[in-house]
Model the fold of this input.
Amino acid sequence: MRDCDAIVIGGGPAGATCGALLAEQGHRTLIIERTQFPRFHIGESLMPDTYWVFKRLGMLEKMKRSGFVKKYSVQFANAEGKESAPFYFDEMNPHECSQTWQVLRSEFDHMMLVNAAEKGAEVWQNTLVRDVLTDGGAAAAAGAANGGPPRVRGVIAERADGTGVEVRSKVVVDASGTTALLASKFGLRRPDPKLRKAAVFAHYKGARRDADPRDEGATLVLQVQEQNGWFWYIPLQDDVVSVGVVGDIDYLIRGRGKPEQVIEEEIQRCPVMIPRVANARRVGSVHVLSDFSYSATRCAGDGWVLIGDALTFLDPIYSSGVLLALQSGERAADAIDAALRSGDTSGARLGAWGDDFYAGLQRVRKLVYAFYTKHFSFGRFNRAHPEHRRNLVELLVGDVFRAEAGDIFETMKRYCDLPEEIRLEPSS
Ligand SMILES: Cc1cc2nc3c(=O)[nH]c(=O)nc-3n(C[C@H](O)[C@H](O)[C@H](O)COP(=O)(O)OP(=O)(O)OC[C@H]3O[C@@H](n4cnc5c(N)ncnc54)[C@H](O)[C@@H]3O)c2cc1C
Done:
């Protein structure tokens, strides 16, 4: 048994961000990761606003020196194959941050974790967190019988050789991704019933790339026929392109063949994709993920905080996952730092950033709902309401935490069924 100030469960982008910033503030920080990095992960396209967290983390120069493909824009094509003009991120506020990257996640996540270790975080890999230590033992930990989850005091982990270890800490941060260890344990996880989606994806080599270096790294979002789904097309380094199709679970995986067959069938239903991959060969296996959209009902409690996908995951359509992981990791680190300094690690203190974060999240969620509204088209909306183009581009850049960016939805709701706001329950 040992003890520290903060334990972070999971060494992905959210955990590495939070762990780095806490260690930098001088807090004894332990990041526990169940795998050995580098490891495969999906989620390769970044949003430009990741720039600001990279800058604070000291990652910016490392990103610039990396071999990651530069991304300047995103482009959409409808089910008939009609392509929109690209949305260039420097259209409104040209800045160094208008360019971002398409990252190989095995490499990127490894760089982030090494960065956290360089800032002073201790990192244990190949170590699985099995459970958390709580006040009141198993009965209290099992649920919210007495009005909420109990105080968390540390974790119970297991090394690769099967050895068990208990570590006590003042704060436990759950950054375990879609495992969502704490939200599941405390019954806080709510799926989004309107976003029951699946994704089937793989890497290809030799796919067609744009000759213009400014467009070569663009993310393409391509609808399949009858709007039954959409493809991402994300150019990576070493001539690799990440290709994935997303659709309703009932359409994409129930009663369909093997994933290899599904992705090939869907490519044939996507007019813009066919010529792009005509001469490409698949490298590696085809992956399937499903039912990934959910939110936790609160972001913190006494002695614990949720960040990244362990708090919420919306949908892959706008490539917002890593940005939200970085943003929540940073905001949580600042709240934990203040809490540790004051000696008050109550949920109210640890979750002080949650409402503002969820307000930004709602803006992305509304855009997601708009995208999935049959017969709604961003191209047509843009032409009908040029006054909103600035807001739209800024949302696509990731500038989602500014209230004015949400003005667009007053007009958009005339065309789409936008979701009700999700509000966080109080963290205390
Ligand atoms: C189909 C699909 C496509 C996507 N595309 C994009 C995209 O293009 N751009 C984008 O920004 N986002 C994308 N995302 C989302 C993105 O992948 C995630 O939002 C992002 O990885 C979240 O980071 P994280 O650190 O919260 O979680 P993760 O990156 O999942 O990291 C969590 C870590 O916790 C570890 N862990 C889990 N349980 C335990 C445990 N019990 N003990 C110890 N360690 C544990 C895991 O091994 C993992 O390394 C996509 C998601 C999906 C489903």
User: Anything to note?
Assistant: The CA atoms of residues 196 and 291 lie 5 Å apart. The longest helix spans residues 321-342. The mean pLDDT is 94. The longest strand covers residues 164-174.
